[in-house]
Specification:
With 400 residues, the chain is of the alpha/beta class. Helices cover 41% and strands 14% of the residues. The chain contains 14 helices and twelve strands. The structure holds pyridoxal-5'-phosphate. Pyridoxal-5'-phosphate is lined by residues 25, 93-95, 120, 122-123, 171, 175, 200, 202-203, 223.
């Protein structure tokens, strides 16, 4: 078992000069997984038609294989996320998976879709686009940040359901606010009103324990190219068996109306090696020790929240049960309050202090979202804490 922390950077191409605290926005792939991907590419280039037409999806016979390459990869990923392989297909990213479900849903005027105000911007846009096309309404539930408890989030969602709600779109881990939401409890209250649940699990695989079957939701879309360490362009869509028949890929292609797997596997030409490398990424997480990885990144995120707020004299009030591998904390008021302040500080931290971190303005102040990966340790957090403090000291001296 390796010792986690900055020494793990030897497994990545990341610039060691930079404290990379932004794995949640743009994940980074270990070199070993990239090497596996390159080996798949080499294989593909040796016999492109055989690889793509026969072996990848089984569109044409490949008597030398018992299973297509994609099914084999799906089996390995399914085992990691608590699903059956036949219910899971690869998609390029979570956005595509979510669009597939939204665009396949049969909505009409008077129907409502429920989403929270913590949802990722592009997902919210996709929901509104479907509403515009179908005449359905969007009901946006406001979740106070930080929430007092996960139960408060469940109650807010339960109270917003109406007789007209036809779909709830729920994050597993929210984007800017980095909250782990109680998906199973939310699904229970939605199902009690007959409302199906689509989960945006962009950040979940590889950052929190995930057993999709246990969550009892209707659809679960996720990225593997963030915390599950696959090369980019790798996500998946899981659908409960009774939700598969009406599900279409947002891009119409050869698999149209040929069943769930064909719908998502027999489509236009693309490079599938990111999905094929997913088993290697999952194997690496297992080799490094998944429970140890999960605990390390959670503990570092929690400690980051405590240490940053102590150093900046602000408050961390998010309950620990709602924190996974990321934490969002307020900056001191003197750091600014506008989008322009956030952009300027983020750029200065990157260019001058060599700290890459997500930073945004909300509710009249700035917030930083720290991602904790196994290549980070407390020295990265201290670097961020000191850099911000130093900047505030300098700006207060200059304004005197
Ligand atoms: C909660 C959430 N949903 C969706 C996405 C979109 O991910 P992608 O661009 O890989 O589709 C993100 C990206 O950070 C996210 O944080």
């Amino acid at each position: 078992m390796p010792a986690f922390g900055r020494t793990m950077l030897t497994h990545w191409h990341l610039d060691p000069q930079v404290a990379y605290l932004n794995h949640g926005t743009v994940g980074a792939t270990p070199t070993r997984v990239l090497a596996v991907q390159q080996a798949f590419r080499d294989d593909m280039e040796r016999a492109p038609a055989r690889f793509l037409l026969r072996e990848l999806t089984g569109t044409f016979p490949a008597p030398w294989r018992s299973e297509s390459r994609l099914r084999e990869a799906a089996r390995s990923v399914a085992g990691f996320v608590g699903a059956r392989a036949e219910d899971l297909v690869f998609v390029t990213n979570v956005t595509t998976g979510i669009n597939a479900v939204l665009q396949s849903s049969q909505l009409g005027s008077g129907d409502e879709m429920l989403i929270t105000d913590l949802a990722y911007g592009a997902v919210t846009m996709a929901v509104h686009a479907v509403a515009q096309r179908t005449g359905a309404r969007v009901r946006t539930v406001s979740i106070p940040f930080p929430p007092s408890s996960s139960g408060a989030v469940v109650s807010a969602i339960r109270d917003a359901l109406t007789d007209r709600t036809r779909l709830a779109v729920i994050d597993h881990v929210t984007a800017m606010t980095a909250l782990v939401l109680p998906v199973a409890e939310i699904a229970e209250v939605c199902h009690a009103r007959g409302v199906p649940v689509l989960v945006d699990g962009a950040h979940a695989p590889g950052s929190v324990d995930l057993d999709i079957t246990d969550l009892d939701v209707d659809w679960y879309a996720a990225n593997l190219h963030k915390w599950a360490l696959t090369p980019r362009s790798c996500g998946f869509l899981w659908a409960r068996p009774d939700r598969q028949a009406d599900l279409h890929h947002p891009v119409v292609s050869w698999g149209r109306d040929k069943g769930f797997l064909a719908e998502f596997e027999q489509h236009a030409t693309h490079d599938p090696t990111c999905a094929l490398s997913a088993p290697a990424a999952v194997a690496l997480l297992r080799e490094w020790g998944w429970p140890q990885v999960r605990d390390y990144i959670h503990n570092l995120a929690w400690e980051a929240g405590r240490r940053l707020t102590a150093r900046w004299d602000t408050r961390l009030s998010t309950p620990e049960e709602m924190i996974g591998a990321m934490v969002t904390v307020p900056l001191p008021e003197a750091a600014g309050s506008t989008d322009a302040d956030a952009a300027a500080l983020r750029l200065a931290l990157l260019e001058e202090d060599r700290v890459e971190v997500q930073l945004h303005a909300s509710a009249g102040r700035l917030w930083v979202r720290v991602s904790a990966q196994i290549y980070n340790d407390i020295t990265d957090i201290d670097r961020l804490a000191n850099a911000v403090r130093q900047r505030l000291v300098v700006s207060s001296v200059e304004s005197r």
